[in-house]
Design goal:
elongated, alpha+beta, disordered N terminus
């Protein structure tokens, strides 16, 4: 006699669902010869809802069937009582589901316990962070640092500077499923501009980025968990002026990591600070060292991590990367005008120096010395 045993395969339909055990043809006995096959008694018909007689002989299959029946009975009882809450993360299934999803349960009834209640991802903010071609190495490092600080960010390839921003970037954000955008635009390989905007209808703000210092450049003593959610700290002036209130809301939705984001860590150990000073926004990133001393629970410490940079606002637009101007910075001076003023000042300094030398030469040429009467007294004297 030759017996052929076919394997029993477990198919998991999803995390937190019932494990369905697919039973294939089991333990078919193949007898050699037609006489023995004809002489063999016919197997009895199995009852409805019970496994076949040949299958029940295997202890593993019998144990699995018993657990499945207990699980189904427990699920029916919970349905009748109205206690089933699948959306809250309740897990039910057989005892074979031991992949780390089960925390507690009743081995007698075969019911599986609940997961620890986790918050739901409701604030679905995603930020696209990318740049144009031609950015410097320092700007590229700043871009990498911001992506590391924002676990809810997405990246894309560098965009051609000839493309129209108000047409191309909203399409890219739609493909990336992002509702915020941080775009770095390089000009003349020395000037860096940062666009921060809401997609797809705006508003958007254009900044000039100044005094950039990256994390690798600063080498600060602070350190934090990668992917942790930051505390956004704003200066009190952000609640006084209307255009600063708009900037504050944009920064919150762009740089704030949403609660329960899949790539974020449920831990808060750093602070992002935005300070309005000298008509500019000063950005700093600190590590928060919480006090563990029960005698002084409010004495926390901050250690700077980096990066640090200054944002000089230029304009606030009603649309995405364009449109009507809502606010314009009257104190802003473009880099071209600043360089022109520096060159004019240097040229004026050179002209002043040349004029001073000319005046000195003319004064020396016009200077006449009176003859001294005793100048030639001892010229012909001999010793």
């Amino acid at each position: 006699k030759t017996q052929i045993y076919r394997s029993h395969t477990a198919v998991v339909t999803g995390v937190g669902t019932v494990v369905e055990i697919v039973r294939l043809h089991a333990c078919h006995t193949v007898q050699m010869g037609k006489r023995k096959l004809a002489a063999a008694p016919e197997p009895a018909e199995p009852e409805a809802g019970t496994p076949s007689a040949s299958l029940s002989t295997h202890p593993r299959v019998a144990r699995a069937n018993e657990q499945i029946n207990q699980s189904r009975a427990a699920k029916r009882s919970r349905k009748e009582k109205g206690e089933e809450k699948g959306e809250e993360g309740e897990v039910t299934g057989s005892a074979d589901e031991t992949a780390g999803d089960v925390q507690s349960g009743d081995p007698d009834t075969g019911t599986i316990g609940k997961r620890s209640a986790s918050p739901r991802w409701i604030n679905r903010q995603r930020t696209l962070v990318f740049s144009s071609r031609g950015v410097s190495y320092k700007s590229r490092h700043l871009l990498t640092d911001l992506r590391a600080l924002m676990p809810h960010s997405k990246k894309d390839a560098k965009m051609d500077r000839k493309d129209k921003l108000h047409e191309t970037i909203p399409e890219i954000c739609e493909m990336k499923n992002c509702n915020n955008c941080v775009y770095f635009e390089a000009r003349k390989k020395s000037d860096l501009y940062m666009w921060v905007g809401k997609m797809p209808h705006g508003p958007s703000v254009k900044f000039q980025v100044e005094n950039v210092h990256t994390m690798s450049e600063l080498k600060m003593a602070g350190n934090s968990l990668k992917g942790s959610r930051p505390i956004l700290n704003f200066d009190s002036k952000f609640d006084e002026l209307p255009h600063l209130q708009l900037l504050k809301e944009l920064f919150i939705q762009t740089f704030g990591t949403p609660r329960a984001h899949p790539k974020s860590k449920p831990f808060v150990d750093r602070v992002m600070t935005f300070i309005w000073l000298d008509n500019r926004v000063w950005f700093r990133n600190y590590q928060a060292v919480w006090s563990e001393d029960p005698k002084s629970p409010n004495e926390h410490e901050l250690s700077e991590i980096g990066p640090r940079f200054v944002l000089n606002p230029i304009r606030i637009f009603a649309g995405t990367f364009g449109g009507p101007t809502l606010w314009e910075n009257e104190h802003y001076v473009s880099p071209n005008d600043a360089r022109r003023a520096m060159k004019v000042a240097a040229a004026q300094k050179f002209r002043d120096r040349q004029a001073a030398q000319k005046r000195t030469e003319d004064r020396k040429a016009k200077m006449v010395y009176e003859k001294d009467d005793v100048e030639d007294t001892f010229r012909d004297a001999t010793v």
